[in-house]
Amino acid sequence: MRVVLTAGRALPPPKVPGEVTIQCIEGSFDVTLATGPVRLSPGQLVLLAPNEMHGVSATTDCSALVTIALVRTAR
Asked: Domain of 39: which CATH number?
């Protein structure tokens, strides 16, 4: 999905049951992880493990491509 935020806006910290990549398309934003914040600029991305808590806050007007890889469990 594409996420668009204006400068100063933030998303509440989600926990997603699959691997997540967040790639900066334009602008810049901080991804807050348990190990500390990571600032992403255009072309950079971060990979998050399943259920890893994270927050996103825009330092400038920005957009990101968020991909979630869910794993199908056997029945």
From this structure: 2.60.120.10
Handedness of CA 69, 63, 13, 54 (dihedral sign): positive
Sign of CA dihedral 41, 50, 54, 58: positive
- Let me know if 62 is exposed, middle or buried by CB neighbors in 10 A (0-12, 13-18, 19+): buried
Q: Which of 53, 13, 51, 56 is nearest to 31 (CA)?
A: 56
Enter the DSSP assignment of 6.
-
Q: How many domains does the chain have?
A: 1
Instruction: Please write the tens of the pLDDT for every residue from 21-38.
Output: 999 999 999 999 989 999
